[in-house]
Amino acid sequence: MPKKRSGGGLSTTQQAAKFLGVSVLAGAVMAGIALPAAGALGLAAKGSVQGFDEIPANLKSPQLSQRTTILDSKGNQIAQVYSRDRTVVDLKDISPYMQKAIVAIEDSRYYQHGAIDLKGVLRALNKNAQSGGVAQGASTLTQQLVKNYFIEEAGDDPTKVAEATQQTLGRKVKELKYAIQLEEKLGKKKILENYLNITFFGEQAYGIEAASQRYFSKHAKDLNLQQSALLAGIVQSPSRYDPVNDEAEATKRRNVVLERMAQLGDISQAEADKAKEAPLGLHVTQPKNGCITAVKGAGFFCKYVENVFLNDPVFGKTSAERAKLWNQGGLTVRTTLDPQAQDSVQSSIKDHVYKSDSVAAAATLVEPGTGKILAMGQSKPYGYNKNETEYNFSVDRDYGGSNYGFPTGSTFKPFVAAAAIEGGTPATQEYSSPYKMNYPSPVQQCNGKQWVNTSGEEVENENESEVGPYQMKRAMAKSINTYFVQLISDIGLCPVVKMTDSLHVHQGDGSKLPETPSIALGAIGLSPLTMASAYAAFADRGMYCTPVAIESITQKVANEQKSLAVPKSTCSRAMSEKTADTINTLLRGVIDSGTGQQAGLDDRESAGKTGTTDSRKNAWFVGYTPNLAGAVWVGSAKQNIEMTNISIGGVYHSEVFGADTPGPIWKDAMTGALDGKPDESFNLVDIPDENDHGKGKGNGDGNGNNNGGNDTGGLIGGLIGGANDGGTDGGATPNPTFSFPDGFFQGNGNGGNNGNGGHRG
Predict the structure, then answer these.
(1) Can you list the positions of beta strands (E) in 20-133?
(2) Is the per-residue pLDDT at 134 higher than 60?
(3) Is the peptide bond before 339 cis (omega within 30 degrees of 0)?
């Protein structure tokens, strides 16, 4: 009677006998001999081993996970992303040396046996019995392929991976039955092709093409004899025989493969001996995975594309379905990113803001009429080191942005003007616009209720010299806060909310804008992408188009390319052409003679608006031509830096304004992006010059006092609203003794009853 090991369980001989029994069973089934269920033969152990006849009849070959390639609009590669680095190739695209080497070392009788090599099993049993352990395995390439199928299906789930690789009789029985099916269904060449594409070669390389690129920087079809032998040898133990980390051990293993090929007659002994003398000849290509490797500073855009994929139902009904499709890969994603525009944005940001600066800049360009995102960049590179960040300051929180976006200051005023004009208010509307005043009260809200200034909250203009009356054109050019507070009080909050809804203007966390008069001054946090897309509707004469980043997607399935549906931009009329033309005329005046003169383009018509928030924590310029819109933000992600007495991009600023920092970034970015593009004109309207009664004359330079409000209230940067004095940018940011990631603290701009916002740019 065989002896048991001291630790209990079966002895080596008993394990071998059990394994042989299963192999014989499988061989019998393959031969067509009818046998009772495996359980009747004692091969089922209380549910741990499924009856042989009960195993599902068909093994579905998994679609192998592959790398996904992200391209710009011209077809240039931006980045490659993958859960497993693999490129599936046909057998004809794999070196004959490689095919012979893997068969020689892993299954030398591959072409002589069926799914199970009984001769190999007996040889292994004898060898293992002599050694007293497991010195030699007996799995065929077909069985190994089945095992790899199980592993591939398990994905990155550690529990499923453990189940797929556990050394149990039940798993072995299932493996054997499916191996038989594959032999009958696929044939030897296809099995070999699938095996070489699925197996792991170490160094993050799955499949022979990825391995060939990783170790030798060449295609699998170009591998020579010694290179093929090296890669074939790695398969048995990728960590032990890793040539990058242990050249000596890898060389020994390579030479074992060469000798075995000579013994089998695949090569001559002389060829083997010569190849053994050759150096490994590694030419390693480091793994380049993920958006962190993106070119042209497009890492944030790359990650935005990934987040669009993972969030949009067009790619799957559930988040799990979308994630599975993305991780499965094999996708070629052609995006809307224009390389000329992206180069221009990155170059402009680099010229004006250093990555080591205490504040950051972000810019996004959008094409009016299509919603295509043509460029997206920022001053702090994508990464996890000092002066890098993984937060995309250009987009909403759900797409990788900061928690709430950033208060926009006076760049919000055109939305108020558009709402008023759309409702019939003339562009010549005049208000007293004093230097300082209480917020008018009451103000009508959409729900029929009224906002009431119960605390006597005040608003003031940038300079004491800015005293009305003003009409809309001059008030917009000079960014007069009290004018727009009076305007929103006059028309009510509901028309403004309806206008911003039609322009898809929402807070950075995705929530709707609050119905308080302070929104007129940009107290609410928005993203540059939201602002650029909204202003693009002005450029397109009132048509708003949802932003899109993906042009097309194809997926490689087997040897075919399959097209996937992608999100399309949806365009709708947000305002009449007359309203849009009027806003374009007003905002052209901002650049011609108002606060935005430093941002105006030299060679074509442009329009835009400056914005600065309380305590100089945010500065904006949002502008456009008829064929391109762009938004630039400069500030601190944590909203804890006041941009006074500060150096940005090597330039000292006593105070930062929307015109003098974001403005030049916008100007340079737009100039380069539009180079060689058509010079189009706005459809302007005639707005008579106002009779300003001799008051408020002079262009001004945008300097002045803070717009009321103190750095009070507001826990976690405005998560809890500020006090009744309005707070600053929706509440002050605490100064913790420990650090948080960029964007963790971010004001939501609700600041009690009236958060502040609008300095003149």
Answers:
(1) 68-71, 77-81
(2) no
(3) no
Transcribe 312-344 into DSSP letters.
-GGG-SSHHHHHHHHHH--EEEEE---HHHHHH
pLDDT-derived band at 133 (thresholds 50, 70, 90) equals: very low
Cβ neighbours of residue 87 closer than 8 Å, sequence gap 6 or more: 66, 67, 207, 209, 210, 213
Tokens 């799957």 locate to 316
Tokens of residue 47, six digits: 């549910």
Q: Which two tokens stand for residue 363?
A: 């810019």
Cα distances (Å, whole numbers) of residue 171 to 18, 112, 166, 194, 447: 13, 25, 7, 21, 64
Please report the pLDDT score of residue 742 as a whole number.
43
Q: Give the residue from 89, 107, 360 showing the smallest Cα distance to 221.
A: 89
Ranges 275-289, 480-494, 585-599: which has the least confidence? 585-599
Residue 168: what pLDDT? 67
Answer yes or no: are the C-beta atoms of 685 and 577 closer than 8 Å: no
C-beta separation of 435 from 489 below 8 A: no
Residue 647 CA, distance from chain mean position: 31
Q: Which residues contact 645 (CB under 8 A, 6 or more apart)?
A: 652, 653, 654
- Quote the pLDDT of residue 749: 39
Q: What is the CA radius of gyration of the chain?
A: 34
pLDDT at 56 over 80: no
Cα–Cα nearest to 516, from 508, 504, 507, 527: 507
- Best CA proximity match to 632, nearest among 529, 520, 539, 761: 529
Q: How far apart are CA 441 and CA 438, in angstroms?
A: 8
Question: Quick check: 436 pLDDT over 90?
Answer: yes
Contact assessment for residue 721 and residue 457, using Cβ atoms and an 8 Å cutoff? no
Mean pLDDT of the chain: 82
